[in-house]
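As a warm-up, study this chain.
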Amino acid sequence: MSKNFNETPYLVIVAVVAVVAIVTLLMNNVSLDGAPIYDQSITPTALCDVTNENLDMYTKGWILEGRTLREDTCFGDNLHQWTCDATLGAREMPLIRCEFGCENGACLRQETYR
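Now compare it with the structure written out below.
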């Protein structure tokens, strides 16, 4: 009888720890099979804010990805634009050669005298 009496406190401790672990898992939205729970309120398109969705080369655009601002910029007569992919987030576009030059993040529409 003393053998069962000595084992009882250990069983109670194991049961309490198991209950606390299960309650903690459930309160933290962790499934018991180990797979992450998908929050359907977050959509992939919420990754970026885009001002120039059509990638108009004559309009300066920018995207905001989280707290990172990425603006269209000029490299000589080449335009570097950004877009936002629905699943990958910010994406650089290939350089565009501007026929009449590039200024302030957009291609010029006609020749200017510099």
